[in-house]
Amino acid sequence: MFAYKKKYFLLIESIKDINLRKIKKYAKFIIIYRGKVRSEDINDLLIFRKECRLKLIDFYVANDQKLAIRLNSDGIYLSSYNRTIRKNICNKSNFKVIGSAHNFKEISFKLKQGCSYILLSKLFLVEYDRTAPYLGVVRFSNFINLFSKKIIPLGGIKVSNLNFLKNINCEAFALLSEVKKKPANIINRLF
Length: 191
Fold this sequence. Notes:
With 191 residues, the chain is of the alpha/beta class. It contains 6 helices and 8 strands.
C-alpha cells in the first residue's frame, strides 16, 4: 500500500536527475531546481521548463530570482538559510514562494517571507548525518496542527518508509536524495 497525496515535491540538483517522460500523472508534481553546480546551459533549462509546462508540472528555482524570472518559472524556493525578507518577490500574480525550515522559529520566519508551502525537515533519520535530530511522525503532526499554512515533510523519506506517510495529515511530501539514489524505485512507486 502507498500513501497517496495531492502533490509530490521533487528537489533536484540537475535536470538529469529526473526523467520527465516517466511522469504520467499530470498536475501532481512540483519540481524544485536547486542547481548547486551552475554547469547546466540556460537553453537546456529552458527546454526542461518547457517540458514541465507541457506535463503541467510546476517548476520552481531555488534562491535565484533572476534565473526564476528568466525561465518563467512558477515561483521561487527559499531555503532555510535564505534570511532575506522578500514579500513582493515578483510582480507576476501567479508567482509563488516555497520555503524550507527546520524548527518553529524558521517556520515563523518563512511565514513572514510569504511562503505558500513550507518544507519542514527532517521527518526521518537521514543517511548522511545519523546524529542529526529528526521529528518523527508524531512531532511532525503536532507542527501541522499549529500552523494554518501548508507544512510539507522532507528528509529521510525513502521507498522503505513511504507507508508511514499515511499517518500524517498533510496533502504532500517532498523527496530529495531518493530521487537521485534510486530513481527507478521511486518512479515505480510515484509515477
